[in-house]
Write a structure and sequence with these properties.
Blueprint: E1 2-6, E2 9-13, H1 15-19, E3 35-40, H2 55-64, E4 69-71, E5 77-79, E6 82-87, E7 93-98, H3 112-125, E8 135-142, E9 145-150, H4 171-174, E10 196-202, E11 206-211, E12 225-230, H5 234-243, E13 248-252, H6 255-262, E14 267-270, E15 280-284, H7 295-304
Parallel strand pairs: 3-12
Antiparallel strand pairs: 1-15, 2-13, 2-14, 4-5, 6-7, 7-9, 8-9, 10-11, 11-12
């Protein structure tokens, strides 16, 4: 029997390396502009989180596509594409009131038709089948109102509308009848309404995102560009961080990497930002060995826990 805990940590270079300056700016006064280079061992097949789960896709997808809601550090839902919402008294319908100034990257407005299309597209194509299972339909009484109709109350419905799980897709592009899981616009000429647009995607190498100047949250994003450098070798990524070629290494879990980073005074480590992922603990049984080959023993361990 083996037990393990998977922890997550972010490694950031000191501001002096990230900003090319010797002084760290105040934490509460972000300076607009600049490029953040993120190192990642994760290799996305494409960039559309509506049909793919996992960190590799979620990282760029959440920047390219906006979602109806997002969440704060206390996991309370916050307005995003939906400026307000209400759940019916019987909890079997959820009404979203969309903001009127959101645009897709091609200049077309985000409407309730796009939300309705996206909800049903995610329901049909996303690996998390239970996430939207109770949703039967989405009504669109006007361009900025979407009503999700459910067969029964669904406690997770608001969480299902968060960035990594519910990217709002432009219906005029992704609703062309092609298989959404293999749609060519999942990887090239991606159009969303998020804070960044896709500049370049070299599978297995890098993703380049550029600031969307017409993003609906005025003054954001602060960065001009985000570059995701992909390398399956975490040690090479750490070397890039130490040199200053890389500004951030999220999802680092290898103890040797974390110890080496901790010993470097120019690197800041934090475990914040993973509250939505959390640690994963599990017990793995070798059922070929006694006494773990006996289901009663495994059951006894489960009862003890």
């Amino acid at each position: 029997m083996r037990s393990a805990t998977r922890g997550f940590a972010v490694i950031l270079t000191a501001w002096a390396l990230m900003a090319g300056t010797h002084a760290a700016p105040a934490a509460d006064t972000p300076k607009p502009g600049g490029t953040l280079v993120i190192g990642s061992t994760q290799v996305p097949r494409h960039l559309n989180g509506a049909v793919q789960s996992g960190i590799a896709t979620a990282l760029p997808s959440a920047q390219l596509f906006a979602s109806p809601l997002r969440y704060d550090a206390d996991w309370k839902p916050q307005p995003y594409l939906a400026q307000s919402w209400e759940l019916a008294p019987d909890a079997k319908s959820l009404t979203l009131h969309l903001r009127h100034d959101a645009l897709f990257h091609d200049g077309k407005p985000v409407t309730s038709e796009d939300v309705a299309f996206s909800v049903m597209a995610v329901k049909q194509n996303h690996p998390f089948q239970s996430m939207l299972a109770p949703v039967e339909s989405v009504d669109t009484p006007d361009p900025y109102t979407a009503v999700l109709r459910m067969s029964k109350p669904h406690p997770a419905i608001l969480l299902a509308l968060s960035p990594a799980l519910m990217p709002v897709l432009p219906k005029h592009i992704y609703g062309d009848g092609q298989d959404l899981k293999n749609h060519p616009r999942n990887s090239a000429n991606v159009v969303g309404s998020g804070p960044f647009t896709l500049k370049d995607f070299k599978p297995g190498q890098e993703i380049v995102l550029e600031r969307f100047d017409k993003f609906f949250e005025k003054g954001k994003p602060y960065l001009d560009r985000v570059v995701v450098k992909i390398n399956p070798d975490a040690t090479n990524l750490l070397i890039g961080l130490e040199r200053g070629d890389i500004g951030a290494l999220p999802y680092m879990t290898e103890p040797t990497i974390l110890r080496r980073a901790k010993d470097n005074p120019q690197i800041v480590m934090t475990d914040r930002g993973y509250e939505g992922i959390g640690a994963l603990s599990w017990l793995a049984f070798n059922t070929a060995r006694k006494p773990l080959d006996d289901a009663r023993v495994r059951q006894a361990i489960a009862y003890a826990i």
